Amino acid sequence: MSTLATASSTTASSTAASSTRTTVKNASLAGAIRAEWIKSSALKGTWIRLAIAAALSGLVAMLASNTIVANPEAAVLAVSESGSAAGFTIAMAATWMGLIVISMLAGSIATHEYAHGSIRTTLIAQPRRGIVLAAKMAVTAAYALLGGVLCLATAYGAAWANLSQVGALPDLADGQTLRLAGGLLLALVSLCWLALALGHLVRSTVVSNIVIVAVLFVIPSTTGMVQSDIVEVINKVLPQGATAAIGQALPAADPTLLSPWLGLVAVLAWGILPSIAAHARMRTADL
Amino acid sequence: MIQATDLTKQYGTTTAVDRVSFTLTPGKVTGFLGPNGAGKSTTMRMILGLDRPTSGTVTVAGRHYREHARPLAVLGALIDAKGVHPKLSARRHLSAVAATHGISRRRVDEVLELTGLTPVANKAAGTFSLGMGQRLGIATALLGDPDCVMLDEPVNGLDPDGVLWVRRLARQLADEGRTVFLSSHLMSEVQQTADQILVIGRGRILADAPLAEFMLANSTRAVRVTSPDAAALAQALRGRGATIAAHDGDTLTVTGIDTTGVAVAARDHGLLLTNVHDQSSTLEDAYMRLTAREVEYASAGTPATSAA
Q1: Which residue segment(s) compose the domain that A128 sits in?
Q2: pTM for this model (two decimals)
Q3: pLDDT higher than 90, residue B287
Q4: Which residues of B touch A26 (CB under 8 A)?
Q5: Given pLDDT bands bounded at 50, 70 and 90, which one contains residue A72?
Q6: Which of A34, A154, B109, B304 has the lowest tally of Cβ within 10 angstroms?
Q7: How many domains would you assign to chain A?
Q8: Chain A closest CA to B194's CA: distance in Å?
Q9: How far apart are CA A262 and CA A15, in angstroms?
């Protein structure tokens, strides 16, 4: 500390500011995105979470594909159910599991700032709170896409051998597979925005995670046991149902799903509506 | 220039800042003094737009802080020394702030050097002492080479050398024509640096004056003298224009004369002095008196408690 103090005393007496005025550009959205990326990418936890998400997806995909191989009836079912898409369903299910970890990362992009008080530094540097939220959403989307691709690739790789064995290997050039992959990645982004928005609204990573798990797993498994018109609508707009709707070929005929376009709207609504609420809270909150 | 007009902040039924008005001018260090809970930090947060005023306005260089295109070039602020992600290094933290305004890496290195943090630039901020955290906060405030610098309790946790450094830095920034606004709950911390004093207590401005004027208006000079011939000494001192403020046995408290004057009067009248003590109040005393009734949280037995 003494070295530190001596050094600072010497420099303070000679240079309080730069000798020529520092070039300072306008505070822009691009600058805010760069700042958010610098902060989040410097944390080991970010990359560890993405790695855990990918590993979890791989594990789930391997276990699910093992079940298919071990159960000849399931294997027959997998093959008979529209071929490649059935195999892709396994990778998708595994990626939903990975999303739990990715959404923890998304929530923490907001909650860590409140927990450590760095939100003040962030808002001093960029006092337009809408821009700060938009920058966080952009960075969150980048992690969601990166994490989603990692999870899908790991799940595909982990299940490849088993799916090949029963002839249910997804055809990556298949239209439905591509639509499902696109819908899934969009849903990952949207649900990560939900986690981020919850982080701003309740400032708690735990609450944010509980909501994500509830939306992805608890509510669908509960509504699956109940038969009613309202429950049917709920199942259609839940992330998994809406994502499945995006994957349909036109003209869509499945009565248990929304149309592909409505599915797209439902998926985006999961992220955008809470983000609007988060913006309203941020605009009025004292920090 | 920072200008507040009737700035008020209420939290429920509590008024944290009550119709505060002031103008901070360039080229001066203004010390913002007040006991803990007086409203200093709330006022500073409102200047930055972090807290929304219940009523009134505050502008920096003629506009609300958030309306500036390059806020960091207008006002640099240290609000919370611990307001950094603990796992981010000092350099990463500064780089992130710099990125918002396209500020160069060279400037990041400059402020690290300026604050003496270069040797620890790559260490996690969570491992920093409070003093190092203050230095990082000051480095962040200076990053945009701002016209105004606002530091909330900047010497908290600093060692004596660090305190001296902050004083010199504040002086130098003001000499460069910047507006410097420093808060503290201790008069002794700002009286050696400030040109202007702004005292706040329970959300209200109690004093807003140049330091010299504040000292003149609030300090008193007194001499406490003990003599076996106290009555005769009192008469001799009155003859020299002094006032006997208190007479307790052999001890007199005298105003309007200094210790030398007392000694000369005693010598001229052949009186014995057994003790002479300068009891002039310090600026700290004046500040404590001014804010005694305004202390939000006082310990039992302090003047604030007895005054309240």
Answers
A1: 27-284
A2: 0.85
A3: no
A4: 69-70, 101
A5: low
A6: B109
A7: 1
A8: 17
A9: 61
